[in-house]
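Quarterly update from the structural biology core.
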Amino acid sequence: MNRFLFPSLLIVPLLVAGCSHGSAPEAAPATVQAELVRSVSAAEPESISTTGTICAKETAAISAQVPGQIRRVLVQAGDRVRAGQLLAVLDDAAMRSSLNQANAAAEAATRQQMAAQSDASLAAETLARYEILKKENSVSPQEFDEVEKRSQAAQLRLESYQAQTEQAKMAVAGASIQLGYTALHAPFAGVITARLADPGTLASPGAPLLEVDRDGPLQVVTSVDESMIASVRRGMTVPVAIDGVSGTVNSEVAQIVPAADPASRSFKVKLDLPATKNLRAGMFAAVQFPGASRSMILVPQSAVVLRGSLDCVYALDAHGIAQLRYVTLGNGHGDQVEILSGVAAGETLVNNPGDRDLAGKRIQTATEVQP
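Predicted structure, tokenized:
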């Protein structure tokens, strides 16, 4: 029995020795000095960003109203024109021929009317004499009836020729108008923005030949999605950023087209621009419409760092130990940025961590700086 007791006595010192060499206590985390900030909850207005194009308030497409070959185009794109200035001329040979025919017909109708007027006057004078003779019983009833009928017929012929003369004059007026359509004039003072045809081209009614923008203030034309159009109101002031113009230009919402585009489900919005140098039609514009306010979490931009290709912050736990958090960023608001996920409101963050690896380190600061 003693042979079994001896080995067991050897095991006890070994167990005691094993317990005396257990794991050492964990080392205290390193302490690092850093500036601290807090994430805050704020109600900020949403910004609706759209793009648009600068356009003239009025643009006219100059087209022919009658078919004809273009003989001359007197302007080029970029030329300034005055109201009523001749821009292009069509071949007018056919129109002049029609006008000459109408004038000849009008002259013939006028001569016929003059002859009918003379006959009617003579017949009326004869009837007047016969009325005197009838009172004196110096003419038979049959003779008087014949003279009266001839006077009435002469008067009817005169009225018929008068109508033909008026119709001929109207034909002359119509032919003159058609001839006038062969000369194309500027509807208002402005700038030629496009020349779409050259001499020798056959002009068709309604096909644009030239485009002209009216002089004066310009507009921005943009589209706003139907989900955000309720935030846009006529008369509101909106900042517009324009390439080539320093800063932003304050514009005013002048018109909201009431019907949405069925393809894009967006509404066209027009904004009036003040007179500004270097603005030209066709320039690109970025528009920022103010939206409804919503709650968001904001942190200073300086608290966000890149680790690899991911946005991160160093957040402190209850013991002041820094933890690396991956975050999802929203829109910027001045020197702050919205945090969509990864940080709650009121958390303490390391400001300007730079390239330092602060994860697992205790952060100390003399003064906690608020954002």
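The first helix runs from residue 2 to 20.
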